[in-house]
Amino acid sequence: MRKMIPALLFASLLPTLSFAAPAPADDMPPPPPGMHKDGAKGHRDMMGGPFRELNLTPEQHRAIGKLMSQGMHDRQDITHKYLDKLPEKEQQAMKDELKVNREKTQKAIRDQLTPEQQKKFDELAKKQEQRKAEWAEFQQWKKEHKSN
């Protein structure tokens, strides 16, 4: 039981890390239409808070951005290492709980929006689900063709 608690704690970080950490370059999905590689405002918005007050040079922004990206990737790898040690039943229970929590959060966010914003929010969610399904289909195709 004592070994299980740290593993579950690491596993509970998975959703946060999966949203924060970028996928490996060869597995990264294309950006949404109208979005550039660094987003509309680039790395400067990503490094808010204390970084904003440091007046970093563009080279420093790039270097720190790479370090932050690598750190997020490393944390994701560590999380997966411990998550993979959990029994399948507990992994599935965790995934189900995360899904319920995500849906609850989405509903709470939607409830804060005006009717026009809700309509747009629903459209964006639908597009995101379509892209997610397309990406899963591509990954499956990639696995099938890699083994050949």
UniProtKB/TrEMBL annotation:
Compositionally biased tracts (Basic and acidic residues): 35-46
Subcellular location as annotated: Periplasm
Keyword Signal: yes
Signal peptide range: 1-20
Keyword Signal carried by entry: yes
Keywords of the record: Periplasm, Signal
Record region (Disordered): 23-53, 103-125
Principal subcellular localisation of the protein: periplasm
Superkingdom of origin organism: Bacteria
Family from the record: Belongs to the CpxP/Spy family.
Matches recorded under PANTHER family: PERIPLASMIC CHAPERONE SPY
Name of the protein: LTXXQ domain protein
UniProt organism field: Pseudomonas asuensis
